[in-house]
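Exercise 7. Predict the joint structure of the components listed below.
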Amino acid sequence: MTALDVAGPSAGSAEDVAARAPRRAFPAERACAVVVLVAMLIFSVWSLSMLDFSWGNIQSSWNIAVKVFSRMGPISLPGPEDLFSLIGITFGIVVLGTLAASLISIPVALLAAANTTPAPWLRPVGRAIGVITRAVPDVVLALAFSLTFALGSPLPGIFALGIHSIGMISKLFADAIENSDDGPRLAIRAAGGSRAQEFWSGVFPQVLPSWIATALHRFDINLRGSAILGYAGVGGLGYAMKVAFAEFPTGYGRGLGIACVIFVMCVVLEIVSSTIRRNLLGVQPLGRGLGDRIVRAATKNRPAPAQRVAPRGEVDVHRMLRRPWTRDRVRDTSWTATGLLVVVAAWFLTDIDFSQVQWQFVPRTIESFWPPDLGSYSFADFAQAMLVTIQVAFAAALLSLVFSLVFGSLAARNVAPSGGVRNTFRVILVIFRGVPELVLAIFLIMVTGLGNQAGVVALAFGGIGLLGKLIADSFEEVPNGPERALTAAGASRAQRYLAATWPQGLPSLIGNSLYLVDTNIRSATILGIVGGSGIGFYLTNASTVLTLHGQVTTLVLMVIVTVLAVEGVAAWMRRVFR
Amino acid sequence: MNSTTISPVIRLSGVSKDFGSTRALSGVDLTVERGEVVVLLGLSGSGKSTLLRHLDGLELPTRGDVEVLGRSLPKLKAHELRRVRARVAMIFQQFELVPSLTVLENVLTGALARLKGPRLGLWAYPKQLKLAALTHLDRVGMLEKAYERADQLSGGQQQRVAIARALMQSPEILLADEPVASLDPESSAQVMRLIREIAADDGLTVVCSLHQVDLALGWGDRIVGLRHGEVVLDTPAMGLSKSQVMEIYGRVATSTAELSAIESELRDAEFAAQATDGIR
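Solution:
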């Protein structure tokens, strides 16, 4: 009331101000974006209800899981000789697949990077190769390749990982090339170097660390996913686990034992690769796995190690021809030698036998994927299946969003009522992220037949860990001036959260949620392959029979279109809500 | 082809360069004789860098002709242009060494135009080239740093390595784009002296852009002033009177505010020059 008294002498002035105040501008594009967001939210709620996510249903699933656990035998392992051979095969497949993808990624990234592409029209080609290889799940590739190989052969796995991983590696590598310093390249061009020389002498040495780091990071991801490849008949631990889980109840103990081996292997190798990435390459590991986090925590306050000492003693031109064995050179050389040894070992461990390849099938296999067709199904069948997969993705994203808004907010320093609450919720989020997709997949396998609900739970669980952390981080990063201003004006904690923290954090919240939907669609496809639901069910069926490969193409195209659509919407939203 | 004996080595006639709607160079005529040491003087944005980049074919003129070592650059095919570039060395304000490579390998990249195919790693270069690279490093006083990473060196050291890389081309022309703008006064003096010595010993033609008048005076044979992409000054650098120096400032400056800024800079520079006893 006092404000009004000061503002004007007469009672009519408030109305006067209201009349003179400008109308709130609401641009059409922003309105559209809000409508789309609300539509997506409604779709998610509808998806959740369509998937029969009732409490009774969850309880009966839980009962089945309990029954399964109570009837299975004790956890056991295969004999040491078998076990080591299985570990060797899985390790070898992942090493060789990742290596192949890393090598192929160099030319792909070269095309895709704005500053190295030979011609502007080749740039979309390079980007498209990345997008397509990323959109086709490695399991689908493995299933398709398995026709040309004997069952349990490592080669389909190597090819599948080799192709699928190109997407991520070439994208990150192209970004690194675009972010590299243009100067050294210019200097080499000015000295008369050719385009190839410009790249290999001027650009590649700059991006080599990021290339190796990306490859190692992808190695971790591929190792985590290698269990799923077993379901496509690729040899190694995953296949052994699948065979074990096929025998109920006697095989379940062995299957769980193998799952534990895979889990331990993932964590150990992730620690190794994180250590290399940090110490050798000076790249802070940013992955969400347990190993990455252990290395991050252990090296938190230590700066990257300093570099080299100068060679001492008499210098003359001829003596300097011999490069001195400084500590750095010894280190670099021994790491290179170790890397080569690992690759050679991987080659022998996988025991690749090219005579296994039925070469006469190769052209026919490739040919069989074209043209795309529907087989005996109608498009409506496929669309219905795709819809189920999208529903799973959205429903899981909604569950993740609701829980991670609570967890993530309370894990943010500027929102949590006390340091204790913040730390508690940080730990909770760490636990959520620590459970790898693998364990969730196994949970799914154990309770096979539950299909979609189990898939949603598995995806939502992992999503809370990821989104909760991203929300907590983005809330902590908002400029804290407005919060201080509201505190000074006497606002309560909740008022401050809603009026200052929330509006500032909203754009990144929207972006991160859409990112989650994007990854969920890919994961839901894969879970569908394992659990036999959604579009994954049709993919599994179609990819194991040569004459049905046209359907695989149709289905994969549908997945690609969906993923691209979500990515496009996400990019648009990020722009509108910036 | 006997183009090497043709004099002058650089001839620009009516060169204009547009970047979109902005004109970087406008009707530049310039002739440089073999063995001349020319300073391009001008404030930032006056077109010095663009002009230098034209001399190495890194930019091609919108109008006019650039003739370097007897070849008209706009008419050359890509591989012919590379052959001209091999004979013209360039050093940069930011040195532009590959940070993660050793000093020696950085110097060796100066020889890439003579080699076929891409190279990565010291083992990829022939021994006699390595020997030559070490000799050049010795000449710029950086021999003992041959196997250090380029990004471990100070700015002045990096620029000396860049000069060794330029020498690796056995160039006939040396282009220097603000070579000391990122260096402290002492390193600046060392680098400028080094360039001058090498130019004299090897009979190089040098075109060096600078924005500090005090560095330009008494260093080159000739000063060419640029303003708004036009040549506004072309004078011998030796034996200038104080009034002539003031006129140079007046020509390259675009406003009285800039002029007074330059004047105060000149006073500081004189002060510094008295302290370090000049560049030469």
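Discussion. Chain B touches chain A through 50 residues (CB under 8 Å).
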